[in-house]
Amino acid sequence: EAQVTQNPRYLITVTGKKLTVTCSQNMNHEYMSWYRQDPGLGLRQIYYSMNVEVTDKGDVPEGYKVSRKEKRNFPLILESPSPNQTSLYFCASSILGGRRGYTFGSGTRLTVV
Amino acid sequence: KQEVTQIPAALSVPEGENLVLNCSFTDSAIYNLQWFRQDPGKGLTSLLLIQSSQREQTSGRLNASLDKSSGRSTLYIAASQPGDSATYLCAVRETSGSRLTFGEGTQLTVNP
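YS: structure for the whole thing
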C-alpha cells in the first residue's frame, strides 16, 4: 500500500530533550515536507526537500532540523524542544511534478512539558 | 504571499442536504488545488485534486470546481451523510515544486 509512515504517533517529552520524528514513504517521491498544525493557525510548512541532500526552510523552521540522506526518509529533529513546539505534526510527500497531489502521514501529536 | 480563505468556518446541516464549501486564494498563478478531509486528531485524506488547466473534478458524491481567474474553488457534497462530518481543507500549490498553502478549513457537522 502506498503510504507515508510517521513515528511515533504520540510523544510526550520534557523541555530540552532532543527528539526525532521519523517519516518514510514508499512511493519513490522526490518531494517531502513537514507541517505543523495549530488551532487558529492552520497548517504551516516547517521544512521541505526536493530530493536527496536538498532541503530548504518553510514558513516556521526555527527550532527544527531535517535531513534527507535517502529518498524515502525525511526525519524531523528537535534539538532542544520547547513548550511552544507542542503541536500536531504531519509529513507529506509528492512527485516533483505535482500532478498527483500530496500524500500525508497520519500525524504525530507532540507535547513538550 | 499566497493566502487561502475558507468560508464558512463551521457548518451544521441535516442529513440529506446538498452543500457547498468555499475556498478563495489571493494569487491566481497556481499549479493545482487539492481538497482534503481531516477527522478529529487524524491525518489528512486527499479527496480531489484539480490541475490549474481543469475546471472541475468529481468523485462519487463530491464535486470540486476551480475558477482560477477569480481565485475560487468550491467543494459540492451531494446528499450529505453523518459520516461526512469532518473538517475540510483546501490547499493550493503555486509551482510544481513548491509547498501547499492551506486554508483554515470548514468544520462540517451532518446531523442524523
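YS: worth flagging: The mean pLDDT of chain B is 93.
IM: good catch. Also The CA atoms of residues 93 and 99 of chain B lie 6 Å apart.
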